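[job 0412] stage=complex_fold ligand=manganese (II) ion status=START
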Amino acid sequence: MRPFTLIVAPFHLGLENVGVGAGPTRLLEAGADQILSTRGMPAQVVHMRAIGNPVTDLDAVTDLNRQIRHAVMQARDEDSIPVTLAGNCITCLGTLSALDTARIGIVWLDAHGDFNTPESSVTGYLDGMALAAALGHCHDELRERTALDTVPAELNTLLLGVRDLDALEEERLAQSLVTVRPHDRLGDTQELLDALRERVDAVYLHVDVDFTGPGGLPREMACGLVDHIQQTLPVVAVNVTNYNPEVDGGGVMLGCAAGLLGRVRELPR
Ligand SMILES: [Mn+2]
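[job 0412] stage=complex_fold status=DONE, emitting structure tokens
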């Protein structure tokens, strides 16, 4: 059994422990390291540091992604499985830059497409461009500064669980080779995973927790989906993002996020 390294990145853009940046800390308080224990030993926890006086949000994001890249590489050197708790989905760049992206696929669970570019985005929100940036559609400087040199293949990317796409974003996805399945059309997931297994050695699993919970995929189905992914393909790294404890009064989303982490516990070895 391989141990887990829990990489804790409690930031929303440049802000520490604010909004979705508070999610990683809350999950750690809820026992994320215990949930990811191996043979009774909790996961090793590695804390990402705040950047001092970032000039721009992109500087802060770049600094954090470089730290995540280093932590993911170190975990893999130690034959440990890196699981990153982060506020923002754009942290995918840090994790992916530490992996052999020519040989891995991406399974991206999200209520949103994260496939906007600065040109298509209505809001300009960076996280709405995270997958597009990872696949080489925008923010080249972020990828370059994180040393994500080999852009993963669109063809080897599954975007599952979406229910809220912008019109232009939907067009962009339709013109891409990314496979998209809305939350209510996940019936052929196993076939998609089987086909992906023929093309890649392993996958990066990106879990934006907003794909489950109220309005999204029911928690048990979400956990079952994570199980299916891991039963079909080796998962080399996981990011769990976008949990905002400030808008989770009843703790419903905390339960969902902790439940999903518990299923990562069942990674095949
Ligand atoms: Mn999302």
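The chain has one domain: 4-264.
[job 0412] exit 0
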